[in-house]
Amino acid sequence: MAKKVLVVDDEKLIVKGIRFSLEQDGMEVDCAYDGQEALDLATANNYDMILLDVMLPKLDGFEVCQNIREFSTVPIVMLTAKGDDMDKILGLEYGADDYITKPFNILEVKARIKAIMRRAALGQSVASDHSAEENVVENGDLVLDKSNRRLTILGTEYNLTSKEFDMLLLLVTNPRKVFSREDLLHTIWGSDYPGDERTVDVHVRRLREKIEPNPKEPKYVRTKWGVGYYYQ
C-alpha cells in the first residue's frame, strides 16, 4: 500500500515541488496551504507522515502540531527557517518528531521521510513477530503495549508521540541503566540525525509533563546529573 503524506506550506511552489518528487516515488500526497486546512485534513485522514511549515495563515505550524498531538501520534516533520534554533526547539516542544531547515534539498527531505518510515515499518515488523504477551512490557506502574504503542499508568492511558514512546520503552526495558543524551539521540533518532542533544532534553521534558505526577521531581524518568537519563 502506498504511503500517504500530508504536505503543508503556504508557498505553493514548495508544495508543488515536494508533491511531485514524492509522487515520483510512489507516495500518495495531500496538500494544505494554511493551518486550519491542514488540521482538517489530519483529522479526517490517516497519514504516514506530515511535513508541516512553521509560518502558516490562520493557524501556525506549532498550533497545528499541538492540536494533532491531541488525537494522533503520526510522525510530524517541521519545516523551519534556516538557522532559527527557537523554531526547532518550539517544534519539538509541541510534539514534532523532527525538523528540516529551509532552504532544503528535496533529496534530503525524501531521505528523512524514508528513514522515519523505515523505522516505523521495522517497529511494526518486530511487533508482528512476537506474541501478544511479549508485546506488553510491564514495569512498576507502567504498562507499554508495543503493538498498539499505548502507555497506561495505574489504568490511565497517556498519548505519547512516536519518539516519546520509543524513548520510554528503551528506558523501561533497561531499568536503572543510565543512557547519555548522545546514546539516546543515536538510538532513537538514528546516527545520521542532524540535530543535537537538546532534542533529547526537550522530549524528556515533554514526556515528564505528560506522565509524571510532579515533573519537577520525576518518579519514573530520572536524571543522573552530568551523565544522562534512566528509568527507576
Automatic annotation (TrEMBL):
Residues 4-117 form the Response regulatory domain. It comes from Pseudobutyrivibrio xylanivorans. InterPro entries: CheY-like_superfamily (IPR011006), OmpR/PhoB-type_DNA-bd (IPR001867), Sig_transdc_resp-reg_C-effctor (IPR016032), Sig_transdc_resp-reg_receiver (IPR001789), WalR-like (IPR039420), WH-like_DNA-bd_sf (IPR036388). The modification 4-aspartylphosphate is found at residue 53. Residues 134-232 bind DNA. Keywords: DNA-binding, Phosphoprotein, Transcription, Transcription regulation, Two-component regulatory system. May play the central regulatory role in sporulation. It may be an element of the effector pathway responsible for the activation of sporulation genes in response to nutritional stress. Spo0A may act in concert with spo0H (a sigma factor) to control the expression of some genes that are critical to the sporulation process. Pfam families: Response_reg, Trans_reg_C. Gene3D superfamilies: 3.40.50.2300, 6.10.250.690, Winged helix-like DNA-binding domain superfamily/Winged helix DNA-binding domain (1.10.10.10). This is Stage 0 sporulation protein A homolog. GO terms for molecular function: phosphorelay response regulator activity; transcription cis-regulatory region binding. It comes from the Bacteria. Residues 134-232 form the OmpR/PhoB-type domain. SUPFAM superfamilies: C-terminal effector domain of the bipartite response regulators, CheY-like. One of its GO terms (biological process) is regulation of DNA-templated transcription. GO terms for cellular component: cytosol; protein-DNA complex.
